[in-house]
Amino acid sequence: MNREQNEERQAEIAQTPGEMLRAAREQLGYSQKDIANRLRLRLSVINDIEDNRFEQAQLATFTRGYVRSYAKYVGVDEKSILALLDQYGHAQPQEQEMQSFSRRTKREAHDSRIMGLTWILAAVFLGLTAVWWWQSLQVQPSTHKESTVKAEVSAPANEQDSSYVSTLEENGAATVTKADTSPSSAAVAQPESANTSSQSNTSASSETSASSESATSNQSVANQADTSVTEAKPVDVQTPAAEETVAVVPDLQLTFSGDCWIDIKDANGKRLETGIKKAGDKLDLDGKAPFKIVLGAPGVVKMNYQGQPVDLSKYPAGRVARFKLPQ
Question: Where is composition skewed (Polar residues) in this entry (predicted)?
């Protein structure tokens, strides 16, 4: 009687998904830690699966994927174990397939694109700098020529001023000479002294008027020369400034401080990334907004959308976060 009860009990135990996986693991000589390291899952996740604790928040969404990977690794029939899992109320319309954890090829291609864009921007910046330097060299000879023209314009003006002074001196000397000779003429011809004196005064007045007109004319020429010099001012030349390089910011940036399963799609339904990420991993993603995002452990994720941080503190730790960006 006791033997039959033990056999029935063992049959019931063997019918649970967790016990089937545990028995297969122990038969192969693996520990729970070995399975966790191989599947890249936390040890607590393996323990919950073997204890049939499928209602845990961290397992509820991805139970079928975890159990299938576990069964495949220990050699248990996947269909049988999933059928038992369905009896526990975990049948899902769409199965969450475990994706490859290796994204090295995709990351390298993305990094090479970024490096190529960086080199292009650097070449453009160097080209603009060379153009600016060349234009600066062209401006310096132009400024030197303008200074030379200004000096040449100033020289005739100075010559005109000297000519004006010489003319005044000559006119003054002529006036003095005529004034000195007038008394001697009066001494020689006394009867005509009054007429001679009158003529001398008239001549002196005429010469003074002529000198004044000559001085006015010379002054006008000097003023015109000064005006032409003043108008010949150097023209300011604006040199183009080098254009600033624009840093390319990805639409989504994610940094992980712990293990986290993610699934990200863009507005076209294209899956940009999926799978489990380890602590220290970083992701840069581009696509068409809005993005559909699923985070298994939002507490270990830091996210930026178009360069701005996204607040994930409103999602409880240990619970799956589903949201769209922009919201």
Answer: 178-187, 221-230
